[in-house]
C-alpha cells in the first residue's frame, strides 16, 4: 500500500518506526554510561568517605568550614574550628571532603606517577635494551 502523505509504502514506514525506537534505545544507553553511571559512582564514593570519617580527621563542609573531628555519631559529626576551639555539629551529608584522605590519595597518585615515569624512562633510555653486554 502507498502512503500519499509521506510518499512511501507501509512496509518502509514500519522500518522507520523500528529505527526510531532503536535510536531512542541508543540515546538512553549513552545517557546511562555518560551521565547516570558516573553520578552513581560519585555518590557511592562520597557516602563511603562520609561513613569512614574518624576522630582527628580534617574535614571541609559544603559551606567551606574547615575543622578537626572530635566526635562522630551515626548521623552527626562534631568538629573544632581554628585556635579558639569552637565546636560545630553538622549532619554527615554536610561534609564535602576529608582533607587527610585527599592528601593520602594525592600522595599515592604522585608515587604511582613517579614510578611509571621511572619505568618509562628506563625503557626509552636503552639501558635495559642494549644489544652489547658492556653495560
Would you give an account of this structure?
The chain has 135 residues and is an alpha+beta fold. Helix content is 51%, strand content 20%. The chain has 2 helices and 5 strands, in the order αβββββα. The chain has helices spanning 10-51, 99-125; strands at residues 58-61, 66-72, 76-81, 86-91, 95-98. The chain has a 5-stranded antiparallel sheet. The longest helix has 42 residues, at 10-51. It is flat and about 70 Å long.
CATH architecture of the largest domain: Roll
Average pLDDT, rounded to a whole number, is 83
Principal-axes shape call: flat
Nearest-angstrom radius of gyration?
A: 29 Å
Please write the CATH class name of the largest domain: Mainly Beta
Which spans have pLDDT < 50 for at least 5 consecutive residues?
none
Largest sheet: number of strands, sense, barrel closure: 5 strands, antiparallel
Order of helices and strands: HEEEEEH
Alpha-beta content class: alpha+beta
Q: What spatial order of strands do you see in the largest sheet?
A: 4-3-2-1-5
CATH overall fold name of the largest domain:
SH3 type barrels
Binned, the helix content reads 40-55%
| First-last Cα distance | 83 Å
How much strand?
15-25%
